[in-house]
Give the backbone structure.
Amino acid sequence: MATGDALKKAAEKNLDLVKIAPQAVPPVCKIIDFGKYRYELARREKEAKKNQRVVEVKEIRLSLNIDTHDFNTKVNQAKKFIAEGNKVKASIRFRGREMGRPELGLVNMNDFQEALADVAVVEKPAKLEGRSMLMFLAPKPVK
């Protein structure tokens, strides 16, 4: 349809001629109430934003010579973070002579991973980076 004819039809109905797909050949237009159209778009965007959730990364710091009760406390804290839908970054900081025994840190990380196996999956396995050993855990995907 010619542009002039489309504009006349829109004016007769007291509506607007809006380009829906300007990059198409020929461009696709629609005769609609533009104010109502913009309002609907804004409502859809607001609804989509409301349903979004920002995933945070929470850090749990373990130590090389952690005791059982402290370890269990850290595991419970990590379970709480994962239940909220956040990711968990477990880290061990090696100080002084501890740097000579990174395998002990790996044992702690594996124990931590096994304790959380029912609620979390390993996103990034334990790896020594400088003086720290890091591991990332994410909530198990819902089936």
